[in-house]
Amino acid sequence: MKILVVEDEPKAGNYLVKGLGESGYVADLARNGVDGLALALEHDYELIVLDVMLPQMDGWAVLARLRERKQTPVLFLTARDDVADRVKGLELGADDYLVKPFAFAELLARIKTLMRRGPVREMELIRVADLEIDVLRRRVTRQGERIDLTAKEFALLHLLAKRQGEVLSRTQIASMVWDMNFDSDTNVVDVAIRRLRAKVDDPYAEKLVQTVRGMGYLLEARA
């Protein structure tokens, strides 16, 4: 199980990572909010232990930005036993909180409780402009019209929609959709994007699948 710890205090951060490692977890450490958010968005962690008071970007801002893209469980660490702080964290999407100082055994107990809740339920319906993706039924419509996609086309569209507004490289797409290492001589991603565009973009005035030259592709509505 992979956990991200975002804690700026050196001793506390090192202690948490060491303790989690000795308890059988794989733990990464970020020492500020900007680095923590970047790691949280780039990797798929089962849990994030997030301190509130962080340099560069505080825990509130990290959580708010994270929840725009992912539903990774978050355990907040706060130095203030303030009801308003706890409520704010939960309203922003935190799953639990611990008030400093705390016993490491209590942290482990909270982690195990969060994990017993099972994986966070994925968004059932994703909308991008007039495009709707029903994830559970694997159904795609645009302007109310059904669009039939192959399994790989749906996986590609679902990936772009989950990360809408974020540029994904060909390497990332190949890895996540085809579970393959990207070969620069292989144009499988470009071909799949062309086929996807033919179905979800070409018949409509507003184009949603965007190309960022030299970087990759993204899905977003542009005025």
From TrEMBL:
The Gene Ontology CC terms held by the record are: cytosol; protein-DNA complex
Keywords, ordered alphabetically: Cadmium, DNA-binding, Phosphoprotein, Transcription, Transcription regulation, Two-component regulatory system
Q: Which SMART domains match?
A: REC, Trans_reg_C
Q: Which PROSITE patterns match?
A: OMPR_PHOB, RESPONSE_REGULATORY
User: What name does UniProt use for this protein?
Assistant: Response regulator
* DNA-binding region coordinates: 123-221
Modified positions (4-aspartylphosphate) are: 51
Give an example GO biological process.
regulation of DNA-templated transcription
Q: What GO molecular function annotation could you give as one example from this UniProt entry?
A: transcription cis-regulatory region binding
Superkingdom in the source lineage: Bacteria
Q: Where is the OmpR/PhoB-type domain?
A: 123-221
Domain Response regulatory as annotated: residue spans: 2-115
